[in-house]
């Protein structure tokens, strides 16, 4: 399962209720920050999630509304918070701009308070844990050297404890070895194979996150059959020409991608102040029914084979209506 915490859902400039783009993705003990708009460090505090283990940042592209918060975040780490290392992943073009921001403006010759590593990535898998991977894929957006990210759990065969009990397999190492695919011998001499206690193969949860995008044709394959797709909806179809000019999507185009890619659920973000949320939702649902419009501090739980779960984080009594 992946958990999403939306820290900022506005496009280009903040509004009263929406901050600039930033999303926390959680998987067990792992936490990733996707984009870091201005004021993200305050949103982190407001959401009540804190800074611990928030040491990997993924940048979709180098436009200022997606990176300016890195300056404040690093400043916060320099004064009050400590982490062992900070890794920022992005395209070479984005990292060049981030380098100028952090080393030229914030640090200005000083040493960072922790090892600070800017890690260039391109198309392909760049992070692998025991049970999930993160893959980057190219996104077309005004020539900004943009990337999207696909989080994918590794598939597995679930352990069936009722079968293990029926076979008299004791708790402990023998069961663990069977889960790992090893054949074991019981104390009474019986040989137990993994097939005797494991269920059918289940694919892992898939999550696709796209920042700003100017077209959808190239995104169908990397987003294909994701359990949830997070993507921008900066414009409505009535201003499709403007959306095309500035390299953005309408809510309808985002929904068309969700339909073509056969995703489980669509979460729209990067919203313009010119539109009402219900109008964005209505336009998208006319094409793809299972749509959510994210609000700041919304929390979503994405799990393969289950409906998308959404809750609102009302930290400190804030409403995101």
From TrEMBL:
<feature type="binding site">
    <location>
        <position position="63"/>
    </location>
    <ligand>
        <name>Zn(2+) 1</name>
    </ligand>
</feature>
<keyword id="KW-0479">Metal-binding</keyword>
<dbReference type="InterPro" id="IPR001279">
    <property type="entry name" value="Metallo-B-lactamas"/>
</dbReference>
<protein>
    <recommendedName>
        <fullName>Ribonuclease Z</fullName>
        <ecNumber>3.1.26.11</ecNumber>
    </recommendedName>
</protein>
<comment type="subunit">
    <text>Homodimer.</text>
</comment>
<feature type="binding site">
    <location>
        <position position="66"/>
    </location>
    <ligand>
        <name>Zn(2+) 2</name>
    </ligand>
</feature>
<dbReference type="InterPro" id="IPR013471">
    <property type="entry name" value="RNase_Z/BN"/>
</dbReference>
<keyword id="KW-0862">Zinc</keyword>
<feature type="active site" description="Proton acceptor">
    <location>
        <position position="65"/>
    </location>
</feature>
<keyword id="KW-0378">Hydrolase</keyword>
<feature type="binding site">
    <location>
        <position position="141"/>
    </location>
    <ligand>
        <name>Zn(2+) 1</name>
    </ligand>
</feature>
<comment type="similarity">
    <text>Belongs to the RNase Z family.</text>
</comment>
<keyword id="KW-0819">tRNA processing</keyword>
<feature type="domain" description="Metallo-beta-lactamase">
    <location>
        <begin position="19"/>
        <end position="201"/>
    </location>
</feature>
<feature type="binding site">
    <location>
        <position position="270"/>
    </location>
    <ligand>
        <name>Zn(2+) 2</name>
    </ligand>
</feature>
<feature type="binding site">
    <location>
        <position position="212"/>
    </location>
    <ligand>
        <name>Zn(2+) 1</name>
    </ligand>
</feature>
<dbReference type="GO" id="GO:0042781">
    <property type="term" value="F:3'-tRNA processing endoribonuclease activity"/>
</dbReference>
<keyword id="KW-0540">Nuclease</keyword>
<keyword id="KW-0255">Endonuclease</keyword>
<dbReference type="InterPro" id="IPR036866">
    <property type="entry name" value="RibonucZ/Hydroxyglut_hydro"/>
</dbReference>
<feature type="binding site">
    <location>
        <position position="212"/>
    </location>
    <ligand>
        <name>Zn(2+) 2</name>
    </ligand>
</feature>
<dbReference type="Pfam" id="PF12706">
    <property type="entry name" value="Lactamase_B_2"/>
</dbReference>
<feature type="binding site">
    <location>
        <position position="65"/>
    </location>
    <ligand>
        <name>Zn(2+) 2</name>
    </ligand>
</feature>
<feature type="binding site">
    <location>
        <position position="61"/>
    </location>
    <ligand>
        <name>Zn(2+) 1</name>
    </ligand>
</feature>
<dbReference type="Pfam" id="PF23023">
    <property type="entry name" value="Anti-Pycsar_Apyc1"/>
</dbReference>
<comment type="function">
    <text>Zinc phosphodiesterase, which displays some tRNA 3'-processing endonuclease activity. Probably involved in tRNA maturation, by removing a 3'-trailer from precursor tRNA.</text>
</comment>
């Amino acid at each position: 399962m992946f958990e999403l915490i939306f820290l900022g859902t506005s496009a280009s400039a903040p509004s009263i209720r929406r901050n600039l783009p930033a999303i926390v993705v959680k998987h067990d003990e792992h936490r990733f920050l996707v984009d870091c708009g201005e004021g993200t460090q305050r949103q982190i505090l407001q959401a009540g999630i804190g800074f611990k283990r928030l040491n990997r940042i993924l940048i979709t592209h180098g436009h200022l509304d997606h990176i300016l918060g890195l300056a404040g975040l690093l400043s916060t780490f320099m004064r009050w918070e400590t982490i062992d290392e900070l890794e920022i992943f992005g395209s070479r073009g984005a990292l060049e701009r981030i380098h100028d921001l952090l080393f030229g403006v914030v640090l200005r010759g000083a040493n960072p308070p922790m090892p600070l590593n800017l890690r260039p990535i391109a198309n392909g898998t760049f992070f692998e844990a025991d049970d999930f991977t993160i893959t980057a894929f190219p996104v077309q957006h005004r020539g900004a050297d943009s990337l999207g990210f696909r989080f994918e759990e590794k598939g597995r065969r679930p352990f069936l404890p009722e079968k293990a009990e029926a076979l008299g397999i004791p708790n402990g190492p023998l069961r663990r070895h069977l889960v790992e695919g090893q054949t074991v011998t019981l104390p009474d001499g019986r040989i137990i194979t993994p097939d005797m206690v494991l269920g059918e193969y289940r694919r892992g949860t898939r999550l696709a996150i796209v920042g700003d995008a100017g077209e959808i044709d190239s995104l169908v394959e990397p987003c294909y059959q994701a359990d949830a797709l997070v993507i921008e909806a900066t414009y409505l179809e009535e201003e499709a020409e403007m959306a095309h000019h500035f390299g953005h999507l309408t809510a309808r185009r985002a929904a068309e991608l969700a339909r073509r890619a056969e995703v489980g659920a669509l979460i729209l973000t990067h919203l313009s102040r010119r539109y009402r949320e219900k109008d964005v939702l209505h336009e998208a649902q006319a094409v793809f029914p299972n749509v959510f419009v994210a609000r700041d501090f919304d929390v979503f739980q994405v799990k393969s084979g289950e409906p998308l779960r959404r809750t609102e984080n009302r930290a400190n009594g804030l409403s995101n209506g």
